[in-house]
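To the wet lab folks,

You asked to see what we're planning to order before we commit. Fair enough. Below is the target structure as tokens, and below that is the sequence we designed to fit it. If anything looks off to you, flag it before the synthesis order goes out.
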């Protein structure tokens, strides 16, 4: 329960910061879209490397190259295994290949997770920025509605005044001369 209360307090604090940011931008008549920092410019070397590994590791190029290496590895070893008198460098069941695959997976998985965590943080920043923009747009729309309502009241008052003056003119024109 205490964790949930802390979580709710953090959300309330974040919403208050967003509301303050929106209010400041409305008062200064500035846009919110320019206020978001570019996450790629603040990335460390490790973060950029993790992003590059995740980008390449999740591509068809990687899958094609990886398949080609595996097929060549198995093909060469199978050929040497079939030749009597030649000793393959990784005899069946390809234990060295399994070792390399395990090492690749043990390194690639955490790097991809780091990249996903970074992408999640970028997504959170984008969602916060979207929330602030939506809040500002809603406040601006409400302000426009109030202005339109005030304008409508002012217009109706002017119309009533014009009608009163028109009635007064009509009464003076239709009145018999004294």
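Sequence we intend to order:
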């Amino acid at each position: 329960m205490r964790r949930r209360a802390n979580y709710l307090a953090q959300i309330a604090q974040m919403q208050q910061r967003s509301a303050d940011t929106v209010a400041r931008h409305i008062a200064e008549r500035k846009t919110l879209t320019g206020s978001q920092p570019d996450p790629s410019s603040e990335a460390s070397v490790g973060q950029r490397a993790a992003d590059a590994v995740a980008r390449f590791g999740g591509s068809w190029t990687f899958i094609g190259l990886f398949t080609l290496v595996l097929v060549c590895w198995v093909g060469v070893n199978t050929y040497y295994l079939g030749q009597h008198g030649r000793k393959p460098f990784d005899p069946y069941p390809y234990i060295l290949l399994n070792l390399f695959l395990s090492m690749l997976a043990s390194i690639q998985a955490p790097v991809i997770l780091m990249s996903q965590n970074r992408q999640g943080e970028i997504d959170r920043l984008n969602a916060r920025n979207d929330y602030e923009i939506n809040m500002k747009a809603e406040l601006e729309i409400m302000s426009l509605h109030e202005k339109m309502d005030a304008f409508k009241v002012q217009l109706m008052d002017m119309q009533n005044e014009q009608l009163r003056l028109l009635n007064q003119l009509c009464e003076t024109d239709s009145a018999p001369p004294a």
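Structural context that might help your review: The radius of gyration is 36 Å. The first helix runs from residue 2 to 28.

Thanks,
Computational group
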